[in-house]
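Long-time lurker, first post. I've been practising inverse folding by hand and with some scripts of my own, and I keep getting stuck on stretches where the structure tokens seem ambiguous. Below is the full token string for one chain I'm working on. Before anyone asks, I'm not after the true native sequence, just a reasonable design that respects the backbone. If someone could post their per-position residues I'd love to compare against what I wrote down in my notebook.
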């Protein structure tokens, strides 16, 4: 079910679970300008378009956190529908974006297309939508080109499949590496601060502080 809500920092968001993987496609917008971005349109583009219409916002961009099919399967179609650029992920995920159709075949997903972003992203760059600004954190491990979008003013991040509530991203897929993933989490995400909340690629969101104390992958219980 899609939920619309507004953050205390004048940003609105709708989380749209899509595909058999129930991936959290996120529509995020600036409340003062109604300019918006769609993050990780993994599929079910008509549902995404319906949510955009319901929110009554103007989408300027599509952002990708990484190249796995459940996050990018609908990106090319949505770009055609909205006539907006795709930004991200890091270029190290190009090999995944070049094989979306092949990957879809493995999962019985039809109608997907390979994706070439209009802009690759690098660590330390900044993106904006309306009056909202996001820093780019390159966080490889789940995939080589995974990126996190972080807004310091709102103390908020979109982390893709790097970190989950109670877990971390899987690393048994091509290009994955557990040690690299844990290094990304401990050097890029944990230093952001315990008060930072995040939306992840699947399931409920959380905060850095809660995960630092309770996530078994971070406490050493796993």
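-- Answer (accepted) --
I ran through it position by position. Result:
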């Amino acid at each position: 079910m899609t939920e619309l809500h507004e953050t205390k920092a004048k940003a609105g968001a709708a989380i749209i679970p899509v595909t058999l993987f129930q991936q959290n496609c996120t529509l995020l917008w600036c409340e003062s300008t109604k300019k918006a971005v769609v993050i990780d349109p993994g599929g079910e583009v008509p549902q995404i378009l319906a949510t955009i219409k319901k929110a009554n916002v103007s989408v300027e961009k599509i952002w990708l956190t990484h190249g796995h099919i459940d996050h990018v399967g609908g990106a090319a179609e949505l770009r055609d529908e909205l006539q907006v650029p795709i930004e991200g992920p890091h270029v190290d995920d190009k090999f995944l974006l070049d094989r979306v159709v092949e990957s879809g075949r493995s999962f019985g997903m039809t109608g997907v297309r390979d994706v070439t972003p209009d802009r690759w992203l690098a660590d330390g760059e900044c993106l904006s939508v309306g009056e909202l600004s996001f820093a780019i954190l390159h966080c490889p491990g789940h995939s080589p080109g995974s990126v996190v979008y972080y807004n310091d003013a709102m103390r908020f991040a979109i982390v893709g499949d790097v970190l989950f509530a109670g877990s971390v991203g899987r690393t048994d897929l091509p290009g994955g590496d557990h040690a690299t993933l844990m290094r990304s989490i401990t050097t890029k995400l944990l230093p952001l601060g315990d008060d930072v909340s995040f939306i992840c690629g699947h399931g409920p969101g959380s905060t850095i502080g809660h995960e630092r104390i309770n996530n078994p992958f971070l406490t050493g219980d796993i």
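A couple of notes from the structure itself: The chain has a mean pLDDT of 94. The longest helix spans residues 178-189. Happy to go over any region you disagree with.
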